[in-house]
Amino acid sequence: MFNWFNNLKIRNKLISSFLIIISLTIIVGIIALNSQNNIQTNITELIDVEGQIAKLSKQIEISLFMAQRNERYYFANYKQLGFTKARSIYIQQIQDYIRLIHNYITKILQLETEETNIKEIQNVGQFVNKYKTNLIKLIDLFAERGFKNDGIIGQFRINVHAIETATINLKHDKLLIDMLTMRRHEKDYLLRLETKYINKLHTAV
Fold first, then answer.
1. Is the pTM of this model over 0.85?
2. pLDDT digits (tens, 9 = 90+) for 74-90
3. Which of 62, 107, 174, 204 has the fewest beta carbons under 10 Å from its own?
């Protein structure tokens, strides 16, 4: 196969060898360059994906912060606004932010390839759902308990006022003093929500 090469003169052999070396060098260079370009492309794509995931993760963090802030606003303002209005303002915003979080999670899952990371982001979605469920339950319980003239507390106050009026009409000083003491314990509890005032109320009764 290489007889033609053996028949060449030394000068021609050197030139041929040199050309072969140059050709091989060029081929190796082209292969190396292509490999480098492929690696660079993969790295760029990886960095781009990681950058997108990082941005989406930050959006999740911001949305969760905003949801929790509206939660605090609800509990700080429901007494002034009333349960219905406070719910329509703050709880609606919380639900909007939770929907955003699930949208961001879906986008991350479309980009992520690591099984461990996929599992973790799925867990985040489950935790957010639990947060929403427990928060709604808590808000429903607060509404059921009521405030001032609403809910159980409202009905309790109506009953107490009726008893107080009846006691005054009886014109019984000792009974009236006991009634006023009970009212004081009641107001202390509603103001401070400390169980010791319930115990004092039971003792007075």
1. no
2. 888 888 888 889 888 99
3. 174
